[in-house]
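re: ur question from yesterday

yeah so i grabbed the chain u mentioned. its 413 aa long if i counted rite. heres the sequnce exactly as i have it in my notes:
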Amino acid sequence: MRQLLFPKYYRDFKCIGPACEDNCCTTNYEITINKEDYQFMLYKSKLKDEAKNIFERTPDRETYARFKLDEKGHCPLITHDGWCRVYIEDGEDHLPHVCKTYPRIADPRGTTLVDMSLTLGCPEAVRKLCFDPDALTFYERKERVKGKMPKNTYKRPAYFKTIRELVRDILYISDASFEESLYTVGVALSSLSSYENSESKDVFEAIAQVRDQVAQGYPRMMFQQQASSFMHQSVFLSCCMERIEIFLVHYPDSNRRLRHLFGEFRKLLPEELRTEPLHKLSSLWLDKLSNPQALKRYHSYIKKHPQLWNNYALWQANDMDFPKSVWQVYSTRVIFLYVYFRCCLILLAQDRELTDDDFVLVVQSLHTAFHNQNMVVFMKQVQFGFDHCLDLATTTGFSLTPLILLQTMKSSV
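ran it thru and got these structure tokens back, copy pasting raw so excuse formatting
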């Protein structure tokens, strides 16, 4: 037997098909197919007569075959109004496995536990996760495994649950801004970093001491001591834009939503600058990010959805199996992605109120890019560029860069 853990947002998810603003059947994704589905399509499907021209074998790869996309990067089995012909002709049960399961993810934690989640490259997944205050209510189900269970070599550290609860409790401090809470998480993990991967029982005493410091407000006082600087935010945004623009040049047929978002940013520019690389306009972004009306609109929107960022930060913890994963990787990733998303939303709020569609666009467009392995190192590249620009590099221990970046945002909270 093995245990499946699945959150409410996973249980509630249903593909919305043609109504999706970024239908995964038309996004130039490589769509792979296993041997069983391949043989069904070629020999039993109602579409078998044309199936031999739709698939190609991939003998040099782990996958068995893949769809031949059309010249637009669309699946050849999608109808003009966005419906799947396999679904229509053969029924949902005969959809290829990847089509049936996406954006669902099953992350095995050894042989006895599986974490179920959704990838945020799907717009509807972002909505289900971020707009439901109860999205991260977890349920469990036992599943019988066929055959002999392999030996379980996966082991979570003894402090796993205690550290995870510490992060969750900090994020839900009721009178703290999200920036303050996230900064407090970073400080807490930094102060506990010497216990990472340690089996020492002293870690629990250290965690209790950190909880006392958090309760007394020490990390939040540290947060308030740093001078604010919109300049740091504009430089960071420019570093992100540079990496994304390089990615979009290298993959000209991919990620239409990210291209659309950057197109919206170009509309904010004077006519003579609209052909310039966005990452070279840091001083202009400085003016936009410090626009008091845009900041007011951003905070007004977030106030209506107070669970947005907490849900996202906790989703990252589940996705990364934190704190079994490297602690600083988790804190840096959440901080940097949050600052990027926040900056993007403030740019979109220059002349109008923000909408739920704006939030989904900003989060989903970047997570779609993460489907490409070349974007996996995105965070490291951004941090290197940001460190270099502001001379913030550190040589040992927890990097202070993410925490300094958060501190400089306090005036806009």
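noticed a couple things. The beta strands are 2-7, 32-33, 55-57, 65-67, 104-108, 113-118, 138-143. also The longest strand covers residues 2-7.
anyway ttyl
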